[in-house]
Every structure is written in structure tokens, then in C-alpha cells.
Design brief:
The complex is a heterodimer of chains A (419) and B (164).
Chain A: H1 5-14, E1 24-28, E2 31-35, H2 39-48, E3 60-63, H3 73-88, E4 93-95, H4 103-109, E5 118-121, E6 135-138, H5 141-150, E7 152-156, E8 160-166, H6 175-186, E9 195-199, H7 208-216, E10 225-227, H8 232-241, E11 259-264, E12 271-273, E13 281-283, E14 294-297, H9 299-302, H10 305-315, E15 325-328, H11 333-341, H12 344-351, E16 354-355, E17 376-379, E18 395-398, H13 401-410
Parallel strand pairs in A: 2-3, 2-5, 3-4, 5-6, 8-9, 8-11, 9-10, 14-15, 14-17, 15-16, 17-18
Antiparallel strand pairs in A: 1-7, 12-13
Chain B: E1 4-10, H1 17-20, H2 31-35, H3 46-49, E2 55-58, H4 70-77, E3 82-85, H5 90-99, E4 103-105, H6 107-112, E5 118-122, E6 127-130, E7 136-138, H7 144-151, H8 155-161
Helix pairs in contact in B: 7-8
Classes of the chains: A alpha/beta (419), B alpha/beta (164).
């Protein structure tokens, strides 16, 4: 029996010719990632291990992005702990304020991940790099510690669900609408323990940013990873960003899938996830008037330059509605600079939005946009759980940057077509 | 491995790690401090009512969302001796084993057991007994290496004890 794309990458990293779903393997890691929340716990664990240091100082990435610039004394202590660890072990890829960006936008941009890699990260959205044709998955801090010490991790080889994307998406349809549609279709545990393998002729119409957004939210369907084939778009991106040689794996023709879904991208409509689960998706024909208090455009899901471009197109010459706060967060310093040079920052500020330094802050109710009781936010982030962005009685509506920007202008959840 | 025994706290589908331990408390990684906020966004009384050894029972996809290891750490430090669910989100599953919090998948038990029941879990056999109703259920027993990790109170001690 043939292997899926994920299985082939895992087999190659376990030194095996063949693996099967359910098999326990130990795989070699190309990169181990942690952030300012998860790394301190991992550092505490690695210090308890009988090991001399880290397995490879060049294959660890420590990104200070969640509560950074430090929101309070305790967060500052956490960042300090990671900074000292990075210094002690001479970790090459330590990203502090000034260099940092939101980890899952930063790592591909810095060329730290390439096609064919196996990556673990102590952050659930580590699955983002599947967009590049890598196997990457989120783990906890102890797995991160063991990964940093040994350069290896154990995995149960997953089955896969195959998503065949066909057709060309319409004007306002982005990667976000596609992945929200899929999560709405299969549910938040629809891909539990499984790979989500994307394929089909529709992929040629998806930019790298669209693919990052789709792979990023595989975890929101319970997926172990989400993965895209390596095509011209991928290769072009890798040429611009990564010096390392890539390896393009492809699923065998006779690979077995647990399920297969075909999705006609040309039929998709702008999609919004209502509280309090990403699977509660609706299109605008199912949405009544929902007044809002805040809009967030950013995060590892949608803080890319193309996301800011769409937001700027919509906000150009318009004003954020009265009594609505609009917070826009470029995901990395490079994106920030690009947005500045393109004039987007001026557009945002003149529209009455604010622009922040890169941070995960508002997405998880950390800081920089925490919601009060009863408040509603349209957000381009990835989770709308109870209390995710603040008060337990606040509400988060997940949407694309186009919907978020349009909603900021009208003060209610709106499709860009309404403007 | 020693059996777990205690009174049940019961929850529904898709209990996410944001409600197990809200991010506003993630500026700490101290288990005792995290435990004081465990479950507070869906069960404000949990921390007040939980006793050492008590058991948590939930439905599908328990522990979904963020990979924060603070979630199983908070549950363990609150005194919970075992979590039973229909299914677990995979990162939460790994994290629980890695920090030595026993968790066990058993859809039948997760559906039948009610809040407040006295329940016992034998990890060697995977048998779950509801002492209140007298029913018993066959859960998935841990493979030996996972039992060892849990018995060592987590992956780190296990790696150290294996002597490498």
C-alpha cells in the first residue's frame, strides 16, 4: 500500500522505507520551536534532564511573541528566562523585541523551514508550515524540551483525510474562508489525530499566504498537521527565503485515505465563525445584523502582507465606525516595513485604526485589545472559544481580513460586497 | 501503577485549553498558582469543590485548542487523579502523558458516569468502575512505555531513569 505525503516525510525522518498509520516511530527533527509562554516550562524541564546542552544550536527557534513587549512583570521574568537560556546555549535563532515577529509568519520568512522538513513547536499553530510541504505539528513544553535535548521526537503515524480543492475562488474569497468552510463542514474534531492533505487543481490559485492560513487552522479541526503539495508557487517562495535545499515529497497514487472531500472553491462565499467554536460557520445569507465593538486584523493566521493589502484596499478613504476600535497588527517587522512603504499604515491610521508592533496579544486575550463583558469582536485570528479574547461573556467572530475591514467600517458584521 | 479513585466532575464536548486555564494566567508557570484558576471560565466552583484524588469526566475532544502544557499541569495540581473522556485532542493527550497526568479514553464510561459518582480506575487493566451505580467499563489500557512515563511522573524523569 502506498503512503500519504505526511507518511513519506515521517518515514524518511525515521530512516524507514515504509510506515503505516498507527505505527509508533522516532523521527529526526529539523527544527524545534518555542515561544515566551511555552519555552520557560520547557527550559525548566530540560534543566531537570541529565543532558549537557541542546542537540543543535542552529535548529532551535525561540520567538518572544505572545506577551511581548512584556505586558507585566511576570511576562518579563518569562522572557528573561528564555533570553538567558538562549545566551547560555548560544541559540542562533532567538528572536527578541526588534527582531521578533509572530512565530509562524516569522519562521518561513526567515527561511528556517523548507519543504520536506519535520518541525515540532510548543505552539498549536506550528502546523502552519505544512503550507511549504513540511510536516510540522504542535506539541507541549515537555516534548519541546526532549526535542531540544535529543533532536528527536516520537510520533504515531497518522491516517490522512484528503481535501481535493477545485476551481478558482471568487474575488473576496481568501484562504481564511476556505479553511473556515472546511472546519464548518467536518467540525472541530473532524480530523482528530489525522493529517489534512490538500490537493487538486484549485491549489494553483492559492497564494503562499492563503496556504499558510489554511494549514495554520488545521488544528482547529483537530488535525495533527495540514499539508500542501510542493508546486511552482512553493518553489518560488522558497527561492526567495531559504538557502537550504528542499525536498519535495508527494503522496503515492495508491495511498489510502480515511476520507475524501471535494470542495469547489468557485462556489465558496465569505464565511464567518460564530461564538464559541470555529465550526459554527455562517455565510452572509444566514447572518442578521450583529453590531460589534472591536475589530482585530493580524495574528499567525492573517497578519501577512496580503492580508494587510486587502484591509488597506477596503479602508482606503473610509473611516472606522464610531464606537468601534480597529486594531491592526503586521505579523513581522518585515511585513510592518513593507506595509509602511506601500502606504497601508497611513491608510489605516487615517481611517481611525491603530497599528501595533507584532504580537499575539489580543488573539488569546493577553493584552492589546482585551474584551469587556458583553463586547463583540470580529477577528482574523483562529479561535473563538469562551473567554478567548477576554471576559467570559464576550464574543469573538472569526473572519477574513476583507470581512473584518468591512465590518470595521460599518460597525456590524459585514461582507466586503456591502461597501 | 496505583489505581485512581474519587468523586466525579463532569463536563461536555470540546472543553478547550483556554477554559481549562485562561491565557490571562499564563504569565505564570507555577503549578500551584495555575491550579487556583483551573476550569474557572466554565466552572467557577471547581477549585472550591475539588479534592485530592477526584476524577474528571468529559465527552468528545477534551483539551482542544492551544498546546499550553499549563492545562494538564493545572488539572493535575488541582488534585485530579485521572481524566476520562470519549476522545482527547492529540496535543493535550501527549502533554498529559508527558507530565504524568493519567488520562483514559472510554466513550461508554464517559457517557454513563454522572457528576458526583464515586469512580475507580485501574490503569493496569483499563477497567473503570462506577462505585455509585455498580457499572464497570473497559477503557483503553496504557501500553507499557506510557505506564512507565506516568509512573515516573512524566517524560523527563522517565528519560533520566532509563539512564540513556
Amino acid at each position: 500500500m502506498g503512503m500519504t505525503m505526511t507518511q513519506k516525510i515521517l518515514a524518511a525522518h525515521a530512516g524507514l522505507d515504509h510506515v503505516e498509520a498507527g505505527q509508533l516511530i522516532e523521527a529526526r527533527l529539523d527544527l524545534v520551536l518555542g515561544n515566551d509562554i511555552t519555552s520557560p516550562v520547557a527550559i525548566h524541564e530540560i534543566e531537570k534532564m541529565n543532558v549537557d546542552g541542546v542537540f543543535d544550536k542552529d535548529k532551535i527557534a525561540l520567538v518572544m511573541d505572545h506577551f511581548v513587549p512584556n505586558k507585566d512583570i511576570k511576562s518579563a521574568e518569562h522572557t528573561k528566562c528564555v533570553r538567558e537560556f538562549a545566551c547560555k546555549h548560544q541559540v542562533t535563532n532567538f528572536f527578541d523585541v526588534g527582531k521578533m515577529g509572530i512565530e509562524h509568519a516569522l519562521l518561513p520568512e526567515q527561511g528556517l523551514v523548507t519543504a520536506g522538513d519535520v518541525v515540532i513547536g510548543a505552539d498549536s499553530h506550528t502546523c502552519t508550515y505544512g503550507a511549504l510541504g513540511a510536516f510540522s505539528t504542535g506539541v507541549g513544553s515537555t516534548d519541546m524540551a526532549a526535542g531540544m535535548a535529543t533532536g528527536k521526537a516520537w510520533f504515531k503515524v497518522p491516517q490522512a483525510i484528503r481535501f481535493v480543492l477545485t476551481g478558482k475562488p471568487a474575488k473576496w474569497i481568501s484562504g481564511k474562508d476556505i479553511i473556515l468552510h472546511i472546519i464548518g463542514m467536518i467540525g472541530v474534531d473532524g480530523a482528530l489525530y489525522q493529517s489534512m492533505e490538500f490537493t487538486g487543481d484549485g491549489i494553483q490559485y492559492l497564494t503562499m499566504d492563503d496556504r499558510f492560513t489554511i494549514a495554520n487552522m488545521a488544528i482547529e479541526a483537530g488535525g495533527k498537521n495540514g499539508i500542501f503539495p510542493v508546486d511552482d508557487v512553493t518553489i518560488e517562495y522558497l527561492k526567495d527565503h531559504c538557502d537550504r535545499e528542499y525536498q519535495a515529497f508527494a503522496a503515492d497514487e495508491d495511498a489510502e485515505y480515511a476520507a475524501e472531500y471535494t470542495i469547489d472553491l468557485s462556489a465558496l462565499k465569505p464565511t464567518v465563525s460564530f461564538p464559541h467554536l470555529p465550526e459554527n460557520t455562517r455565510t452572509f445569507d444566514e447572518i442578521d445584523e450583529v453590531p460589534i465593538d472591536q475589530v482585530v486584523i493580524g495574528s499567525c493566521t492573517n497578519g501577512h502582507i496580503s492580508d494587510l493589502r486587502i484591509a488597506a484596499e477596503i479602508l482606503e478613504g473610509k473611516k472606522v465606525a464610531d464606537r468601534v476600535r480597529c486594531i491592526i497588527i503586521p505579523a513581522t517587522q518585515t511585513i510592518y516595513l513593507e506595509a509602511m512603504e506601500a502606504g497601508y499604515l497611513r491608510t489605516f491610521i487615517e481611517a481611525g485604526a491603530i497599528v501595533s508592533t507584532p504580537t499575539c496579544g489580543p488573539c488569546l486575550g493577553g493584552y492589546m485589545g482585551v474584551l469587556a463583558e458583553g463586547e463583540r469582536c470580529v477577528s482574523t485570528t483562529n479561535r473563538n472559544f469562551v473567554g478567548r479574547m477576554g471576559h467570559v461573556d464576550s464574543e469573538v467572530y472569526l473572519a477574513s481580513p476583507a470581512v473584518a475591514a468591512a465590518s470595521a467600517v460599518t460597525g456590524k458584521i459585514s461582507s466586503p460586497e456591502e461597501l | 501503577m496505583k489505581a485512581a479513585s474519587g468523586r466525579v466532575f463532569k463536563y461536555g464536548d470540546n472543553v478547550d485549553t483556554d477554559v481549562i486555564i485562561p491565557a490571562r494566567y499564563l504569565n505564570s508557570s507555577d503549578p500551584k498558582e495555575l491550579a487556583t484558576h483551573c476550569m474557572e471560565d466554565i466552572d467557577i466552583d471547581f477549585v472550591k469543590n475539588v479534592h485530592e484524588g477526584d476524577i474528571m469526566v468529559a465527552a468528545k475532544n477534551f483539551g482542544c485548542g492551544s498546546s499550553r502544557e499549563h492545562a494538564p499541569i493545572a488539572i493535575k495540581a488541582s488534585g485530579i487523579s485521572c481524566v476520562i473522556a470519549e476522545t482527547f485532542a492529540r496535543i493535550f493527550y501527549r502533554n498529559s502523558i508527558n507530565i504524568g497526568l493519567p488520562i483514559i479514553e472510554c466513550p461508554e464510561a464517559a457517557q454513563a458516569i454522572q457528576a458526583g459518582d464515586e469512580v475507580e480506575v485501574d490503569f493496569d487493566s483499563g477497567v473503570i468502575t462506577d462505585k455509585t451505580t455498580g457499572q464497570s467499563f473497559q477503557g483503553q489500557a496504557f501500553p507499557p512505555f506510557m505506564q512507565k512515563i506516568i509512573a515516573c511522573e512524566g517524560l523527563v524523569n522517565y528519560i533520566n531513569s532509563e539512564g540513556k
